[in-house]
Amino acid sequence: MKRFLMDRLITWKNATRHKPLLLEGARQVGKTWLAHEFGRTQYVNVAYISMFDNPVMMDVFAGNLSVDRLIPALSIEAGTRITPKDTLIIFDEVQEIPRAMTALKMFNETAPQYDVLATGSALGIAMHPGSAFPVGKVDRLKLYPMTFLEFLYACGQDSLAELLESQDFALIDVMHERLMTWLRYFMYTGGMPEAVSTFADAFPNVDFNAIRQVQAALVEDYRDDFSKHTDSQPRPVVSTLRLNQVWDSLPTQLARENSKFLYGAVREGGRGKDFEIAIQWLVDSSLVLRVKRVSTPLNPLAAYEDSNAFKLYCLDVGLLGAMSGLDARTLLDGDALFREFKGALTEQYVCQQLTVQQRQVPYYWSAANSSGELDFLYEQNGQVIPVEVKAGRHKQAKSLIYAQKKYEYPLAYRYSATHHSDNGAIKDMPLYMAGIV
């Protein structure tokens, strides 16, 4: 399995001076596997310590956090000798023992010769407000579900993946229908590693019901985490009910003509004060992507944020399809999958791809008088790049054309199910190129 974040882990390792690294993300996106693979391929030795349900480590970290005291204990627990630079120390599920998170500060300040990588569920990390997070003492990377390129590599389609990376559009056009077929597979399967493995291991004899069972189990696991982390707090700041209500509303919110998040669509009469904490909790846990509106689509986008308007996307397109009950038979009906519930799946897919590419969630813009909207915006090399997403093969995009002329964007992308074409400032790209170009 190929994960492109590996390159950034290697860059971290090779840096002359680096802090302990926190690899965070939602549960089940592949953090533990990536940490092991990084250690296996880049170090002589790996000292792996799981913090999950580990009373011995709980006692160890309850005491003095001196590195001279910790190293022997960690060596015994991992069953291996720990030597500086040659050994990668992995604190897996670090959020289970908050003082292990605090210990990262000690490694940074007193023992920088040791390479420490901590993996943590963003959900758990966000739920320990009373513990001392080592602000400024750790480097941080976030792992998201697999991208379309990673999916192709996982399925043994290396040639197709390399073709997309080459951006040889003459040959890409020849392979267009094959690439669209694989994109449909990805839109259904999504990027959660267990679902991808279920698909890849069985292909071409794929049991799509088995994939749905994996996705349904993941959705229920997240529900269980809601109650686990809220009920365990002495004074819960958010209720399990509110979290479930927002989580369950995602397909309905995105299926609306204007997918701006509406509190009233969560519960009749709902208001911001009822759900804003639940939404922030889900954002902090990496279970949702919050795409904020900007009042003016100009650089810097953060200066034009409208805190009262946003869209919420799921962390993974496959999970969104499972939550909405998407039927596997749509895979057989041409581009129907991309148009499901008014193109919400297609927007979800593009949002994911852009988030990984840009290492941050994009923005969107809508005119105050509702005369136009840009699906996504991001900044690149000091320029604002607008993105229009089309669920089918038609390319009509009045808002994009209007905005491009008004704001004189040097580059704009329009993604659809059609072939690539270059029309000057507006470049038409097939959907499978999202997050690649």
TrEMBL record:
Q: Name one Pfam family in it.
A: AAA_14
Entry-linked InterPro entries = AAA_14, DUF4143, P-loop_NTPase
Domain AAA stretches: 18-152
Q: Pinpoint the DUF4143 domain residues.
A: 236-392
Protein name, per record: ATPase
